[in-house]
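User: Round two. Same drill as before: sequence, then structure, for each protein.

Assistant: Same drill it is. First protein:
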Amino acid sequence: MSIIVEFFAAPDDASAALVLRTGPQRVFESLSFGTFDPEEAVVEWQCLLAGDSFEELVEAGEPRPVADAGDDGCLVFAIAPRLSAALAEAEQSELKDAALTWSSQRAEDGEVIDTEMASVILGDLAALVRSARSQGQGVYCWVA
């Protein structure tokens, strides 16, 4: 489980990879969260919002790594285009429903994610995705 999770907008993979060691906060617009597995979360969110299969996404290599520091544990990965589109197009009620389901799924696995916090995470991420898309940027996640 990650200690620091920061979603951020960047113009491309190369730019996103540059924040591997330091994080995106001083360079790109970002959202900071913590104490959940973002790699698993983005796959689960894509299943909930875009109707994709968890197994197929994992087999396809989602989420797609952009940079990995190896031993020190830092990682940057890209948010899949289908998830970006689903987040950008989702109504508030859809995001809230997905957040409730995600929170329940995590609870079944023994991971406590407050439903209100889950709603904040998905709502804020959807807003970041909309902003990034309007500027022709992608959304990435930095994990430390």
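Second protein:
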Amino acid sequence: MKQDPVPAPTSVWRDQRAIALLLAASLTVMANATISPALAGLEAAFSDAPHAEILTRLLVPAPSLSVVLCAPLAGMFADRFGRRRMLLIGVILFIITGSAGLYLPSLPAIFASRLALGVAVALIMTAGTALIGDYFTGNQRSDLVGLQVSARNFGGFLFISLAGYMAAISPRLPFAIYGLAAFFLPLMWVAISEPVRSAPRTKMQGNKGHRAWKWLILTLALLQMLTNMLFFVIPTQLPFFFKVQGYNSAVMTGSALGALMLTGGCTALLYARMKRTIGFYGNYSLGYTMLALGFMLIGCGVKPWIIFAGAAAIGAGYAMVSPNFVAIALNLAPERHRGLVGGMLTTSIFLGQFLSPWLSTPAIAAFGYSETFYGISLLLGVLALATALVGGRELIRRLLPATG
């Protein structure tokens, strides 16, 4: 049932809807990496199962494949049947499918549950993005998209750390972490209401979106896919890089990813203020510069502290550019197509993640780790320069006082 819109408080922290959407955002980071610490134990537990080695490794990327396939459809359904229902269904499905590894009897059954988990993530992310556009405007929207990235980073740090301890007790125990979503569901049920959308004939001019919004959103989604494809090289290739360098792979990878998530979470808290100061293009340029610096430092691989500094720079850079995609897309898209746009953005994120190891692994085999990281750094540097040139006028207008 649709309800009258609730006026948004001055601060998003005082708005229950914002808190509910941040909790939803923190869930999506669980989808892939939470069970990573349990993979070796699961492989041993199901060693007698056919194809256990490959199925175990596919448990991590399996949700991404489902998201890529389902998110566009989820976006169309959100526009047609409503966002609130889709979000709540997604969270309930997330709880059921995410925790299924606790009790399912076979590895193929667990793999199937991971595919179903991807459907839940597609519903949650698509509905969440559309609801941000429906509920919030201006600075509040910028605040919230930055806080979403922060929630994912801090949530990832907490959930993956917790999973590491639980996997040491039992390889099935990390699946229980997905059940934490049950504690978030009551607030979502109460706080999230279906926004009232204007009828087509009574739409105000401001709700129609940019006249070229389809092409602009497609371009934005492709850039987001490329960004996530490059960023995801770190969690997928860093463990093997450390092994080649002669370090303790498990300890170093955990420490590097911890540094990445913490700096990303802290930087994302500043996103709205930075956007108001230097604009979207300024955030892109600075963020891509930080990403390029991070890959260059890791490519050096001389000392552990340099690698950790590189990981921290990558986390900060990604936190600067990632919220931009959602904020810009919601500004461009018509009100009635925000679900579709949310689905496109969700698809581009997970498609980039899914493609990343397929493209980076052959490059590493051909050129080596350091050379591949340097190449990625160069590409990110080009993106930083391009966004700086395109947004130069806007940046100057914001940094210099108006004259005449």
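DSSP finds 17 helices and no strands in the chain.

User: Perfect.
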